Amino acid sequence: MKVVDPAWPLWAGAATVDDTGPIWVAADESGSSGENLVDPQGGVFAHASVRIDDKTAGDLLTDLRQQAGATQSPEAKFSQFKTKRGREALASALAPGGALADCVVITVAEKRYLVVSKMIDLLVEELTHDRGIDLYSNGTARNLAVTFFQDGPRGLGELWEPLMAAFVSLARATQRGGGEKESVDSFFNRLGRARWRCRRSSVEPLLDLLLQTRTYADDLVLSTAQRFSPAWTRS
Fold first, then answer.
1. Distances in Å between the alpha carbon of 181 and those of 163, 168, 171, 210, 213?
2. Contact indicator for 228, 131 with CB cutoff of 8 Å
3. Does one domain contain both 190 and 80?
4. Within the chain, which residues score under 50 in pLDDT?
5. What pLDDT, on a 0 to 100 scale, did the predictor assign at position 5?
6. Three-class DSSP category at 51
7. Hey, which residues does 27 pair with through a beta bridge?
8. Distances from the Cα of 104 to the Cαs of 47, 54, 79, 96, 101, in angstroms?
């Protein structure tokens, strides 16, 4: 299926109406901090898209604002719907049979879960794949991520957050916001301490696997540096 036609991108000079042209989809996110998944501003990232044209959206927003009793500027902000009336109006629009039913997709992700998922995808899966083990076909990778996310904070205590931050620093191309970029040596030193002090038997097998992935961590750091370095610096 061809998603983008030769006329893309399309620009609308007037209010869009779905039955007179292409289907219009609006998207927005909340809580994004880019590569910095351990930022202190919030642990949840949300992305939502809605299939709606300007005419329909304008009428619906006016109605929602009236139901919520919003009196602020015309620009829609969630703060206008934080009251009980506002939340009920939004819930009604999103519910089956509501004005936005079947038109909206909302994805919510916990950032620490994204971190542990990438630890498995970029390190553990590489190790097990080379050993002829498929972590994805039967859901093992996801189960490992869920277990580590749920039991890791209690099992590792004060070592949990520094380990999350260390992996993010290790895997990203550059270090921003101060501090030194995590090295492979320092990351595996943290892993070793975490395994030694782990207080959850459910977490120990994953830490054991991670401690065997140093070669793959070296490859990850090298490939990331090459991918994001200026072309003139590459040999």
1. 13, 9, 10, 20, 19
2. no
3. no
4. 1-3, 231-235
5. 58
6. strand
7. 49
8. 11, 15, 20, 11, 7
183 φ/ψ angles, rounded to the nearest 5 degrees: -95, 165
Q: Indicate the number of domains in the chain.
A: 2
Residues of the domain holding 80: 18-30+53-102
User: Is residue 46 in some structural domain?
Assistant: no
| pLDDT tens-digit readout, 130-168 | 999 999 999 999 999 999 999 999 999 999 999 999 999
Read off the pTM: 0.72
**At residue 136, what is the residue type?**
Y
Q: Does 132 lie in the same domain as 61? A: no
Cis peptide, bond prior to residue 9, ω within 30 of zero: yes
Per-residue confidence (pLDDT) for residue 6, from 0 to 100: 63
Q: Verify that 213 and 122 share a domain, yes or no.
A: yes
